[in-house]
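Quick start: read one record
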Amino acid sequence: MTDGLPDFFTDKTVIDDPIGYFNAMRSKCPVAKEPYQGTFMVTGHQELTELLTDKGDTYSSCLSVLGPLPPLPFTPAGPDIRKQLDAVRDDLPWSQHLVCFDGQKHTDHRALLVSLLTYKRLKQNEAYLKGLADTLIDGFVADGRCNVVPQYGHATTTYAISDLMGIPEADRAALLEAIGAPPSQIDGDVDLKIGPDPLVALKDLFDGYFRDRLESPCDDLMSELAQSHFRDGTDIPLDTLSLLARFLFGAGQDTTSHLISMAIRILADDLPLQQRLRDNPDRIGDFIEEVLRYDPPVKVAYRLALADTELAGVEIPAGSIMTACLVGGNHDARRFDDPAVFDIDRSGLRDNLAFSRGKHGCPGAPLARMESRIAVERLLARTREFHLSEKHHGPSGERHFNFVPTYTFRSLIDLHIEFTAA
């Protein structure tokens, strides 16, 4: 312990109470260097907005998944490290995937996904999502109980993104197993996540999908992607198509499943709010926004300072790793009144930072919002009330939950509820 705070990246106590850690860091300074890994923890809403919307290409997203672990493979030297980074960039963790791209390369590849995840496409998928949610509920409604994480949250998003992309049903279980546990774990298979393409185990399968669609297009997202071109009209190589699709599948089913589970966790301890949303389903969207502010599935993102700069008056040397504490910004009392209170009536609900901001804001945010809204809507419609299982999570006032030991993501391992069917 240093200054009374644990190491955010290795201490398991932070897993259960990340908000307490971010509040303590912010009380020191909204931009403060932590002593263990040497990163700057940015915990203020205004400061995060400035960092994430940087227009001068001062910061790189090359470390956006794993942050400071493993450390940079070089010692930053001088006021500008761009040449040092370029020499090793292709060997960095996740470097072959969109989330770690910068500049024009990022703009061109991101545009492909944005052009596919249109409002029209999402609306066309809405009826399927409602039917899917009801089918999943049918599978456990007679039991009067379920483990939300695998039976509802994870199942909803896995089937939803698979259907949208056109992944054969027979392949889905194997794909999930190949993806494995989330990256940036304190325990577990972090060593398997540090290569340039941690999703390489899926390559042959997705390469095959695109060869099939180039020959025989279907009515699905992968077919449309296979027929796409970059904005300058050039063809998209097969490897690029496969990389984009693999990343979309992995990202599209993981974080949203945890958003759904967290939303149900909050509702399960608030019967009056459950009833309010049953009576006013048009407010479920506002409820989801407050979940995204209060306890979202992504706690932090990362940036690398490419040149000497400053943020909120704090000098940032070239080579500094910036930890963008998204949850910290969501609990900044300078932006949100009474941030520790869950309130769907608060002003500025969409000012939360759950999907980041700027050029690297999550392109799948509209899909995540729709999937989580429909999942909550159908569970409320199919039950009179639901509550947390005291056997698994303890009595009211003494709740306990199990989280995946990862410093980047906020992921419930399980969530057991009991309910009365409607």
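The longest strand covers residues 300-305.
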